[in-house]
Every structure is written in structure tokens, then in C-alpha cells.
């Protein structure tokens, strides 16, 4: 058995304990929160090593900032764990049920997934966030974080494991893979005997690697090439505000706006207003030839790639389209199925857009930036699924559970 | 583009038509049923070739019987399609919804999967069954059946495609891969650009090949190493009847019983009665040493493998265990997560068993043979999922859908 196979076997064993753990899971979460606070200085010391190594390796300031832990941020992690403890238990909900003619009573009940794998990048707060959500959902978790955060992650994971032991839980409810080689990630992706689901959290490269290498069931998350269509009947002021918010309130996230499509009959009037707004944040516009003709040389000529990629930056692709059908065609071709929006005052077009666009979240007259578990009122969020199996859009605790049928009889045979 | 990539692209295009097809899907299904009846003779002629080839290839009589189509069986397929037309539309159900403080109205609505792939073996009736369910669920389907049934499948698929065209539907809502090489199956498993989900229907070998080769999301189906535990407090008469039914009513199916575990304090009394019942169908018992000591030399000594495999035959593995915890350990080790049963009159043990056993269907005092979409009242069934993601247990039309969030606002920004 390899180290990771052993972790899988231990996690599976721990997951059997969790099936019957009930509300004691909340005690364990509160113990974890307390331990994070108590070990704050130690965790920061470990984080200092990661920061030092990161600086030497030439990480950008923005990456170093994501990596950095402070007393305040660790307090935030502890509060996050406490909030998860206070959420309703997603396990044991009766989803459906009936009594059959033969007297069999059937219930469909939510149950833990079993063992959940999480692969993520250099954000050490994910270590406690993800572990807390999985624990609350009654599953053991195997974490595989990025190498840049390994010392921080080890300190956080050990803190959580010790807290589990103190309240009589198996430590292996939470496991951290300490080997940060590419090989260890691949091994986790193929741990079919032990892993019930794998959730990658990170950029397009990570997601692609998981899709190509995984043999365990995967929930794809996160890549968002989000579109907004300004319909002929749009309120230009509203469109301008939603576009500005979608593009500039936080360009690095997956629900940020990447492409604006605009109806040809409103383009000439609306584009200069939109441009003026975006200029406040120096957003670069990459436009089709019609956009360029309207806005002039300040617009960069868009190439095919500009419509296909997530910029995650102060850059926006803009294209003039003939009508809503052309907009739908464009979206069907380039969308990653995350979030799309129509700005319109036309009832039929609003309905057509929401029905026809095949994305996790489809908006009428609101910013794509709302695609978020917290904003949607789902409580904490483990990620945003862009696939269609199991969960789609923001995933909360409920999406971390499976279900089973329980059938009670008194001797029925078929 | 390869042939299969082209089929994927065509299916994806057809799936966009289906998103808006609404209740006209039922007209298409009725047209398909009518066409199956009208083309019955032609389909049987194609089937004759498969039967002839199968006989020459030395297929067993039972396989030839699965492969054979008669006017009666084709009528059954047509009736099956009509029944699907009469089911409620699984698309457009509002699963959840709320209005947020900022006035955004959020709904979670069921939507089609998109393109569904089905890989199956030599049962030509699956061709129309699966296609009808996928069509009703608003998805295009790409079928890849076994080579033994290829002539039958082509005749059935062409019949269905022509019927679609007659009612103005894209023919490519239903596609059949005519190349039955292993390579074509692998290519379908990796068609990530077009396939939203792949459902294999067949034996353990097929399922394993899909898990190992697939890059698209998969729903594993079917392998059932089903257990029954006779608790100390069991009604022996009831246990005997449920075991006989589970093992002998249809040994070749996935919900048939494969292993009986029996509490040591009831074994001596119960085993001879159970054995006498099973003798009526000449069931071979492979028992542990204690079973052998009780029942004598008529029992074959069980080896490890007997507890791990599906017999799918008139063979039953039997083991005496110390208590319910030993039974739970055994099940956790050997179960494939399909269906397990406890026969008991003890409340606490019934609750412990249903909570602790991690399978799609967990029974108290009833036969595992009930694990079936029709028996559970789910309408038609596309398969029985033994994985924990998306769907678990019998999958009906609802499990063939995904969902999306629709968010309606009046200019909200974040």
C-alpha cells in the first residue's frame, strides 16, 4: 500500500464512524475552531516559512497575499468553522417517501458521501473551510493543497486532527497529503477504491488536469467565461451599471464578466456610455470590427481567443450581434456554463434567454457577480459546479451529501 | 473530426432544439412507437441476421434469447415508449426558490442534461427504452450497443430517427454508433466536449472498463453483491421466504441475493430450514466452516472469492457471524453498495442496520429483489446507480435531468 492508499483506507474507516456521529459533529467543529485560535501563533510561524519560500521563488505580491495568514485571518477561519457548526445537519433529511400497495414503506434519505477529496491551490484558508464543510456533511476528507502553502496546511491540519482526537473523533476524518508532487495529485485522482468524489478548486489548468486524469467521480468547479447580452430593449443606464459591476468589482473571480454582446440597434447609443463607465477603471476593450467602428481606435481588435478565454483581469471582450438568436449562438459556442445575463425590458426575450442558455446561473437584469453560495442563501459554499451531474452552480452542504433508500417491510417478497 | 466527434457535435446541436421542445417531445415519442410497430417485420428481419451470427459465434441459448426480437417483443417496446410519453415531464420542475433581501428572485429549475451516452450489451430493447427516456428528459442520446445486436440496433435506431424527422425533430436527437469496436466505446467515454454524462448498462467488466477509461462524467450502474443478515431475533419462516425469493426468483439480475450472514445464536435452528427451502431449486450453498459443521458435506467450503463475487446463478454464499457488528463489518468489506437486508424483530438492530449500511437500498424484512424503478414507483428506469454522486439506486426520469438557477432582478449589482 502506498501512503495515499493508506490514507484512503484510514479515511474510509473514519467515514464509517461519521455515519453515526450525529450532532457530535458540531462539538468537533467547535473544538476545531477553538484549537485554531489557540494555535494561531504556531500556524503563523509555519506560514512565515511558506511566505519566505514563496518570496524566494518569485511569487507575485497578489499570490503572496492569498498565501499569507495573520491573526485576523486565522480568527476568520475559526469563525467560519463555527458558522458551519451552526448550520442545519444536511444528513438524515427525508427527501421523498411513500407506502407501496404491498405495504412496503420507502424513504429516500440523505446520507454522507463517504470520503471526499479536495485538490486546491495556494490558499491555506481552504484547508479549514473545506474540512469543516466535509465534516459537517458526515464525510471524511483528504486534502491535497498546493506546495506553496504546505507548511501552513500541515500546521492547520495537525491542529484540526488533534482537536478531533480530543473530542473522541478519529483523527483520520481529516487527512492532508504532505507530498505535493504532481504524482500525489494524480494518485488521489485515481483512488477509486476509497474516494467517493473529488472536488478540484482552482484555475482552468487544475480542472483540466483532473478531468483528464481522474478515475473517481469528479465535480468540476469554477471556470467562468461569463457573458452579458444587452438586448435592443435594454435600459442603457442599467446595462452600464451591471456591466461595470460585473467586470470591475472583482475581476479575478469566476463570476466576473468577460464578454458583452450588444444588439446592433442599440450599440451606437449604448457603447459610448458603457465605455465611459469602464474607463473609470481603465478597462481594456477588445471589440469586434463594429465596436471598433463605433468607439474608435481606443478599442483593441478582438481575436477569436478573446471570446474563448477568461481574462480574470480589467479586460472585456465586446461584440455587436444581429439579434438575440445570434447572442444565444455565441453563448452556446463560447460559454463555460457558469453565469450569463440578459439586460432587457422585453418579456419574451427574458423568457427565451433564461430557457435557452445552458448555464448554471442565468440572470435577467442583475450582475453575474451574485453567483455565490452565500449570496444565494445556501450558507457556506464548497465551490461552484460548472458540470451538470449531481450539483450545478453554488454548492452548499446539501450538495456534499448523497442519498439512500430505506425500505421497511414485514416479510414482503417479489 | 472523427465519426464519433461528428455524432457528438450533431447530438449537441439537437440537444439545443430539445431544450425548447416542451410537450412536443410526447408527440415524437408516440410517432416512434407507431413507427416501431409499422417496421416490426423489417426489424425482425435484421434481428434474424444477428441471431444467425450469434448462433454461428456460439452464443449460449440464454444470450440468444436476450438478443431475440419477436412481434410480441417489439409490441412491448412500442408500449414502453408510449408509457414514457405518458409520464410527467421531468424538465421545468421548480426544485427550490426564494426572494433575497435585495429583491433578486432565485429559482432552481430542472433542465435537460444535454447529451447522454449509453453503452450497453446485447439487448436490442435497450435501444428504444433508453432513447425514449433520454428524449423525454429533453436530452439527445448517443447509443453504443453490443456488436451481437448491431443489425437489430441499426434497424431500431433508423426507425426512430425517421419517426423524429416526420414530426419535425432533428434526427440526431437519437444517434447510434455503428462501429462496435472496443475503440469506438473508448472514444465515446472520452468525448468530453460533447457528452454531459455516460451511463453504462451491463456487467462488471463493462462497468470497470468505463471507470478506467472514461473522462466524461459517469453514472455507474448495476453490480450487486447483495447481502441478507439473519439477526438473532429473526422470524425464521420470514427469513427463509425472503432468502428463497432473493436468490431464486431471478438469479441473473443485480438485485438477486448473493450472500446470507446469520447470527451464531440462531444458525443451528435456522440453517436447516433455509437449506431445505433452497433445495427446492437446487441452490448450491458455499458456506464457512461453521455452516459446514451444521449442514454437513452437502455444503461447499466457501473461499474468500465466494464472498466477493456476484454469482448471478443458483449459488449462495453463507456465513455464520458473532453479532450484528460482525455482519456490518462483512458487508462494509464485500458489498458493492447495491441492496442489503436485515431480517430482525429487534427495533434497535433494524435502526442500526439501516443507518450503518452504506448501500443504495437498505431493507428491513423484505426481499432485495424490490430494488427496481418500477417497484419503487419511479416510473420507467434507466438503470440502478451504485455510486453516490448525482443518483443512487433506481434512476427514473428525474435522475436524467440537471438543474440551473434562474435569477430575475431589476438592476441589482453586488
Based on CA inertia axes, which overall geometry of chain A fits?
globular
Terminal-residue CA separation of chain A: 43 Å
Oligomeric nature of the chains: homodimer
Radius of gyration of chain A: 24 Å
Tally the helices of chain A: what do you get? 15
The main pleated sheet of chain A reads as: 7 strands, parallel
Sheet-strand content of chain A, in percent, reads 15-25%
* Proportion in helices of chain A: 40-55%
Reading side by side through the largest sheet of chain A, how are the strands ordered?
A: 10-9-11-8-7-12-13
Number of E-state strands of chain A: 16
* Content-based structural category of chain A: alpha/beta
Which chains have the largest interface?
A: A-B, 69 and 69 residues
Task: Please state the average pLDDT score of chain A.
Answer: 96
Low-confidence stretches of chain A: none
Account of the protein in words:
2 copies of one chain form a homodimer. In chain A, helix 2 (24-38) runs antiparallel to helix 5, helix 2 crosses helix 7 and helix 3 (40-56) runs antiparallel to helix 7. The first copy, chain A, has a 7-stranded parallel sheet, with helices on both faces. A 4-stranded parallel sheet of chain A has the order 5-4-3-6, with helices on both faces. The two termini of chain A are 43 Å apart. With 414 residues, chain A is an alpha/beta fold. The first copy, chain A, has helices spanning 3-19, 24-38, 40-56, 61-67, 71-86, 125-136, 150-166, 182-189, 204-213, 236-248, 264-279, 289-295, 304-308, 324-334, 347-356, and strands at 94-99, 105-112, 115-120, 140-144, 174-176, 197-201, 226-230, 257-263, 284-287, 300-301, 315-321, 339-343, 361-366, 383-385, 393-395, 401-412. At the A-B interface, strand 2, helix 10, helix 15, strand 13 and strand 16 of A face strand 2, helix 10, helix 15, strand 13 and strand 16 of B. Strand 13 of chain A pairs parallel with strand 16 of chain B, so a sheet runs across the interface.
Amino acid at each position: 500500500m502506498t501512503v495515499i492508499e493508506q490514507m484512503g483506507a484510514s479515511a474510509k474507516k473514519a467515514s464509517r464512524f461519521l455515519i453515526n456521529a450525529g450532532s457530535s459533529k458540531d462539538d468537533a467543529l467547535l473544538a476545531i475552531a477553538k484549537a485554531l485560535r489557540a494555535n494561531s501563533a504556531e500556524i503563523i510561524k509555519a506560514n512565515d516559512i511558506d511566505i519566505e519560500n514563496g518570496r524566494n521563488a518569485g511569487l507575485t505580491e497578489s499570490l503572496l497575499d492569498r498565501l499569507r495568514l495573520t491573526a485576523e485571518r486565522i480568527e476568520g477561519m475559526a469563525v467560519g468553522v463555527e458558522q458551519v457548526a451552526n448550520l442545519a445537519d444536511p444528513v438524515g433529511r427525508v427527501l421523498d417517501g411513500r407506502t407501496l400497495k404491498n405495504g412496503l414503506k420507502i424513504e429516500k434519505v440523505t446520507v454522507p458521501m463517504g470520503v471526499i477529496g479536495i485538490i486546491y491551490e495556494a490558499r491555506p484558508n481552504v484547508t479549514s473551510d473545506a474540512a469543516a464543510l466535509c465534516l459537517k456533511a458526515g464525510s471524511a476528507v483528504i486534502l491535497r493543497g498546493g506546495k506553496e502553502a504546505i507548511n501552513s496546511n500541515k500546521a492547520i491540519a495537525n491542529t484540526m486532527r488533534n482537536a478531533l482526537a480530543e473530542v473522541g473523533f478519529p483523527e483520520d476524518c481529516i487527512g492532508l497529503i504532505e507530498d505535493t508532487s504532481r504524482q500525489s495529485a494524480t494518485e488521489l485522482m485515481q483512488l477509486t477504491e476509497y474516494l467517493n468524489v473529488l472536488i478540484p478548486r482552482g484555475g482552468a489548468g487544475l480542472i483540466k488536469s483532473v478531468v483528464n486524469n481522474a478515475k473517481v467521480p469528479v465535480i468540476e468547479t469554477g471556470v467562468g467565461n461569463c457573458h452579458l447580452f444587452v438586448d435592443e430593449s435594454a435600459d442603457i443606464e442599467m446595462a452600464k451599471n451591471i456591466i461595470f459591476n460585473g467586470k470591475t468589482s472583482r475581476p479575478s473571480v469566476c463570476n466576473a464578466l468577460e464578454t458583452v454582446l450588444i444588439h446592433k440597434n442599440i450599440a451606437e447609443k449604448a457603447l459610448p456610455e458603457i465605455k465611459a463607465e469602464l474607463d473609470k477603471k481603465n478597462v481594456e476593450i477588445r471589440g469586434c470590427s463594429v465596436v471598433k467602428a463605433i468607439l474608435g481606435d481606443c478599442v483593441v481588435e478582438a481575436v477569436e481567443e478573446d471570446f474563448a478565454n477568461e481574462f480574470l483581469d480589467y479586460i472585456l471582450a465586446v461584440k455587436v450581434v444581429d439579434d438575440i438568436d445570434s447572442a444565444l449562438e455565441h453563448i452556446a459556442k463560447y460559454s463555460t456554463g457558469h453565469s450569463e445575463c440578459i439586460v432587457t425590458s422585453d418579456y419574451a426575450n427574458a423568457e427565451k434567454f433564461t430557457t435557452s442558455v445552458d448555464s448554471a446561473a442565468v440572470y435577467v437584469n442583475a450582475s453575474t457577480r451574485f453567483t455565490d453560495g452565500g449570496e444565494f442563501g445556501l450558507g457556506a459554499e464548497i465551490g461552484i459546479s460548472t458540470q451538470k451531474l449531481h450539483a450545478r452552480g453554488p454548492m452548499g452542504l446539501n450538495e456534499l451529501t448523497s442519498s439512500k433508500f430505506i425500505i421497511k417491510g414485514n416479510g414482503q417478497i417479489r
